[in-house]
Design goal:
By secondary structure, this protein is α/β, with parallel strands linked by helices. It is 35% helix and 26% strand.
């Protein structure tokens, strides 16, 4: 079974870039443009990797980081933001990575090679 990635990102360009990148790498990719839609998708099928934007139209994604890491301990959580906000109240572990936009494909390659 292929690994799965969920991208919760309201910026369509970045959402589509991440989807195309991971699809080329043979991952099964789901996307969401809102926090509500993304959280619903997590409940339907827990992804292996989650890219979660902070500023979404219906809330702050990073506010859910602690709950997500607690509820899904095997989830690789990638928090993304256009600016570097204060860190969420979440335990920093090797399963958590913070990305500042813009995200380069080269950096994504390095990330995948490290998994």
């Amino acid at each position: 079974m292929p690994k799965t990635v969920l991208v919760i990102e309201d910026e369509s360009d970045l959402r589509l870039l991440l989807k195309a990148f991971f699809t080329r790498k043979k991952y099964e990719v789901a996307t969401a443009a809102t926090l509500e839609e993304g959280l619903r998708q997590i409940d339907l099928r827990i992804p292996d990797i989650l890219f979660l934007d902070n500023n979404l139209p219906d809330g702050l994604g990073w506010d859910h980081a602690a709950v997500l890491t607690e509820k899904y301990p095997n989830l690789l959580l990638n928090l993304i933001s256009a600016y570097h906000p204060s860190l969420p109240n979440v335990k920093i572990t090797p399963r958590l990575k913070i990305w500042e936009k813009p995200i380069s494909l080269k950096d994504l390659e390095v990330y995948l090679d490290s998994l």
